[in-house]
Amino acid sequence: MFDAEDRRFMRRAIALAEKGIGRASPNPPVGCVVVRDGRIVGRGWHEYALLDHAEVRALREASDKARGATVYLTLEPCCHQGRTPPCVNRLIKAKVSRVVAARPDPNPAVSGRGIEMLRSAGIRVDAGLMEEKAGELIESFACHITTGLPLVVSKAGMSLDGKIGTGKPEGRSISSPESRELGQRLRLRADAILVGAGTVLADDPELTYRGAVAKGKPLIKVILDPQLKTPESARIFRDASPCPVVLFCKPDAPGRRRKRMEDMGAETVAVACRGDELDLRAVLKELGKRGVLGLLVEGGSRVHWSFLSSRLTDKFYFMIAPLVLGGQNSIPSVGGKGYGSAAESPKFKIRSSFNAGPDLILEAYPSYSRSIISPWLSPGNAPFRGRYRAPSSGRK
After folding, report:
1. What CA–CA distance (Å, rounded) separates 384 from 363?
2. Separation of alpha carbons 269 and 267, rounded Å
3. pLDDT tens-digit series, residues 140-172
4. At what angle do helices 87-94 and 113-120 cross, to 10 degrees?
5. Considering 5, 47, 55, 232, which one is annotated as catalytic?
């Protein structure tokens, strides 16, 4: 079905879609190229602030050369009225002859309808080219649109023996500069970043995005703080950029502390508890309602355990530095109660491994991951098992 030329042009469309990473949310990054007589005559990618979808931008550049052309798209074109008219109608009106789509729209309310409409209009549609690579672009969007919850991505920089620190201030820095740069790229992809109050008290992080590529909307700083112990002097409040701070607490958190946090410009949200811990699913539901597609969990040790033991982590970046900390007081990457046996513990598959400077990076997925690119999935299987039904609007 696909030849070398198809693959070459789809790679160009994917490269264009990557320009929308960090800029397209709450929509997915999408890339499009229009090809006529073996030559690209139109290019487009989606940035939410610029309104137009990738197809519209590419067709505008192609103008009348779009007639009889082949269009390469990283995602099935939308077929519904959102902030903009359906892109399917624009493709039909432009009289293109063929559309090559990497993936169908993951929204279960609309998936496949765009392809059906194009075929009904006499346009040849071929789908599935470079599906896995295109899935990386929409991983967070797909999770949110099908479950109502954000994709949960955890990361931890650790030693070879799985420790994230010595427990002393001078032992905090483990990861290489290259790993820290990777961390910024993960923050670019995320809509929100989460840590526990213990990390705020111990490390006083800024939780800001400091990458070279501009981010479309501010990174939301999320703190799990049951009794609102975050100090008013914390650096999360001193960020000059307009990054919202949301502290999740217990319903019985001190009222005076809630007022003080709100006076500092933060928002406090009380959620139910499960035992002594905040109900993380309730936290994710609240973030999902706020349009958070991807949540980056950066720790600490107890927080990683809470997400893993609740089966809410969708993928985990283990960033392993070539050193050993040892010691009984060193902090494990995953703390908490721990599992009673290896049989009880979650099983992971490594989707990719690579180096960031001297560090080894493992991109690992637990068996219960909701990601559309989880290595646990058989080709073509749908990973979504929740009862959430996505709204018919899909992309906006």
Report:
1. 20
2. 7
3. 999 999 999 999 999 999 999 999 998 776 656
4. 20
5. 55
Which residue matches tokens 């169908």?
Answer: 104
**Residue 137's beta-bridge partner residues?**
none
User: pLDDT digit string (tens) for 242-296?
Assistant: 899 999 999 999 999 999 999 999 999 999 998 889 999 999 999 999 999 999 9
Question: Which residue type, as a one-letter code, is found at position 300?
Answer: G
CA 313-288-249 angle, to 5 degrees, is 80
> Catalytic: 55?
yes
pTM of the complete model: 0.93
- Annotate the chain with three-state secondary structure: CCCHHHHHHHHHHHHHHHCCCCCCCCCCCCEEEEEECCEEEEEEECCHHHCCCHHHHHHHHHHHHHCCCEEEECCCCCCCCCCCCCHHHHHHHHCCCEEEECCCCCCCCCCCHHHHHHHHCCCEEEECCCHHHHHHHCHHHHHHHHHCCCEEEEEEEECCCCEEECCCHHHCCCCCHHHHHHHHHHHHHCCEEEEEHHHHHHHCCCCCCCCCCCCCCCCEEEEECCCCCCCCCCHHHCCCCCCCEEEEECCCCCHHHHHHHHHCCCEEEECCEECCEECHHHHHHHHHHCCCCEEEEEECHHHHHHHHHCCCCCEEEEEECCCCCCCCCCEECCCCCCCCCCCCCCCEEEEEEEEECCEEEEEEEECCCCCCCCCCCCCCCCCCCCCCCCCCCCCC
